[in-house]
Write a structure and sequence with these properties.
There is one protein chain. Strand 11 and strand 12 form a beta hairpin. Helices cover about 45% and strands about 20% of the residues. The chain is an alpha+beta fold and about 425 residues long. About 15% of the residues are buried. Helix 1 packs across helix 3. It folds into four domains: about 45 residues, no CATH class; about 110 residues, Elongation Factor Tu (Ef-tu), domain 3 (Beta Barrel); about 60 residues, RNA polymerase II/Efflux pump adaptor protein, barrel-sandwich hybrid domain (OB fold (Dihydrolipoamide Acetyltransferase, E2P), Beta Barrel), CATH 2.40.50; about 130 residues, Helix Hairpins. It has a six-stranded antiparallel barrel. The protein has a four-stranded antiparallel sheet with strand order 2-9-7-4, with no helix packed on it. It has a four-stranded antiparallel sheet with strand order 6-5-3-8. The protein starts with a helix and ends in a 23-residue tail after the last strand.
């Protein structure tokens, strides 16, 4: 039934590919002739079917157009595969050559961070915070006032110390004038002593003369006794004048000692004044270095004590990098070798640096509680040692590197590592002159 329907359809609708003349003949022929013609053509196209072997549809063979289309695709696929394999081989060879000539001399680590010698601002005197001059994260210069502490009490202490110094200076001046007066008294006592000696000399001569006359009987006894008394009075007067002179001279020395004591007290008072002025100056907390003010810990009006932390100044112009290399990577690293620094924060922007020094110990040695590997079970762990990398001034002054940033450091060990297999000190001066 299906074959009859197909034949009828072909009769009614001619197959594509027939020309107009065949179509005209089919229209002119009778329906019976058309049926016979179609059956004959169908018989030619189909193989003969036997009753014992029922008709089965054989798989259609690919047409010539399909074969012609498949052939270019297969060739193109092979060409692409050959090209990919060639590129991979070329890339592998390039990588191997680069590693042998350059790559194996670069020692890299991502355990590297930007550091800075942060300065902690602290209070030297107690008092209330009167003002905080710079704003947070602003640039300050060395000597700029950062915190201002109420200085009323310290100003009074300075004035009192200056007043005591003035009083003590007046005392020293008064004692100096006393010394001058006593020195005049010494001169007067000396003159009296000389006068007493002259009187004693005159009385002695008179006594000798009266004694000679009295012995020969030419002078009375009374006159002789008067001359003798005059001589004794002269001796006593000389002794008195000597004592007065010595006392006047000693008074001068005592007064001079008092003056020296007063000068020592003046020096002590001057020290107190310097201490008061120093405390007064400490009411202005100044930045010791150039940097960025940050990490403010107090507010205006807070009462602070000596030693209390107030904030930090980070010198961004003098940053450096600590790269923590494994101990197995230090064999070829030497001070002075060039370093390529890649900063994560700026899309792996690269900077140039120089190896400055190598830490004398691993980081675990400087911890508060160093590990003791001599106790308990032991598991060997590769230690890391900080390698200090110096950043050029021009790069640091751009203020792009901030303390704490993560970086990727790669040391070029092609220079200065000729003694890598020897026992040369790692910190010895190397003949490296980086550009």
């Amino acid at each position: 039934m299906a074959a009859a329907r197909d034949q009828a359809a072909r009769i009614i609708r001619p197959e594509p590919g027939t020309n107009d003349e065949e179509a005209a003949r089919d229209m002119a022929a009778t329906p019976a002739d058309q049926v016979r013609t179609q059956v004959a053509e169908e018989t030619k196209r189909r193989p003969a079917e036997t009753p014992a072997d029922p008709a089965t549809e054989a798989p259609a063979a690919p047409s010539a157009d399909a074969q012609n289309a498949a052939a270019p695709k297969s060739g193109k696929r092979k060409f692409v595969m050959i090209g990919v394999v060639g590129l991979l081989a070329l890339a592998g060879i390039s990588y191997g050559v680069h590693y042998l000539l350059v790559g194996r001399f670069y020692i890299s680590t991502d355990d590297a961070y930007v550091r800075a010698n942060n300065t902690t601002l602290g209070a030297r005197v107690s008092g209330h915070v009167a003002a905080i001059l710079p704003v947070d994260n602003s640039i300050v210069r060395a000597g700029d006032v950062v915190f201002k502490i109420d200085d009323g009490d310290y100003r009074i202490a300075v004035d009192a110390a200056r007043t005591r110094i003035a009083t003590q200076q007046a005392t020293i001046d008064r004692i100096g004038r006393q010394v001058t007066a006593l020195e005049s008294a010494v001169e007067q006592a000396n003159a009296q002593f000389v006068s007493a000696e002259a009187g004693l000399k005159r009385a002695g001569l008179d006594f000798d003369r009266q004694q000679a006359l009295s012995t020969k009987g030419f002078a009375s006894r009374a006159t002789f006794e008067v001359s003798e008394a005059s001589r004794d009075q002269g001796v006593a007067a000389v002794k008195s004048a000597q004592a007065a002179y010595d006392a006047a001279r000693d008074n001068v020395e005592v007064t001079k000692a008092q003056q020296a004591e007063a000068r020592a007290q003046l020096a002590e008072l001057q020290t107190s004044l310097a201490k008061a002025e120093r405390d007064f100056d400490f009411t202005s907390v100044r930045a010791p270095v150039d940097g960025t003010f940050s990490n403010r810990l107090v507010n205006t009006g807070d009462f602070i004590q000596p030693g209390q932390r107030l904030g930090n100044v980070v010198p961004l112009d003098d940053v450096f990098i600590d790269a923590n290399y494994k101990e197995t990577q230090l064999r070829r690293i030497r001070p002075g070798q060039p370093v390529t620094i890649s900063v994560d924060a700026y899309g792996h922007r690269k900077f140039a640096g120089i190896v400055d020094s190598i830490s004398p110990a691993a980081g675990s040695v400087f911890t508060l509680l160093p590990p003791d590997n001599a106790t308990g079970n032991f598991t060997k762990i590769v230690q890391r040692l900080p390698v200090r990398i110096r950043v050029p001034r021009g790069v640091a002054r751009q203020n792009l590197l901030r303390a704490g940033m993560s970086v990727y450091a790669s040391v070029d060990t092609r220079e200065g590592a000729a003694d890598a297999d020897s026992e040369t000190d790692l910190d010895s001066p190397m003949m490296i002159h980086p550009q």
